[in-house]
Amino acid sequence: MATQTNAVVLQSTITCPECGHSVEETMPTDACQWFYECTSCRAVLKPKQGDCCVYCSYGTVACPPIQEGSACCGS
């Protein structure tokens, strides 16, 4: 019988909607990241409406609190 692991993934590839540049980042575990500056075009990304952080909006992996099934930043 296989056991399911619920390890939180901290690496997420964030993609800029302005220029399409992608970069792998390590997500913080102790705070939400509401803003992210693209390292290519310098656009400042903010979460889409209904998302709690830039990783939930533009990353390949949701932020750690969402992965754990809780509200992001206690909201």
Q: What does it look like?
A:
With 75 residues, this protein is α+β, with helices and mostly antiparallel strands. It has one domain (11-63). Helix content is 12%, strand content 19%. The protein contains 2 helices and 4 strands. The chain has helices at 54-58, 64-67; strands at 11-15, 22-26, 36-37, 44-45. The strands form 2 sheets. It has a two-stranded antiparallel sheet. It has a two-stranded antiparallel ribbon with strand order 3-4. Strand 1 and strand 2 (22-26) form a beta hairpin. The radius of gyration is 13 Å and the shape is globular. The mean pLDDT is 88.
Map the helices and strands:
Elements: E1 11-15, E2 22-26, E3 36-37, E4 44-45, H1 54-58, H2 64-67
Antiparallel strand pairs: 1-2, 3-4
Beta-strand fraction estimate:
15-25%
How are the strands of the largest sheet arranged?
1-2
Distance between the termini: 37 Å
Q: Give the overall shape, derived from the CA principal axes.
A: globular
Average predicted local confidence, pLDDT:
88
Question: What's the count of strands?
Answer: 4
- Determine the fraction of residues in helical runs and give it as a percent range: 10-25%
Structural class: alpha+beta
Number of helices: 2
Major sheet summary line: 2 strands, antiparallel
H/E element order: EEEEHH
Rounded Rg: 13 Å
User: How many structurally independent domains?
Assistant: 1
* Unreliable stretches: none
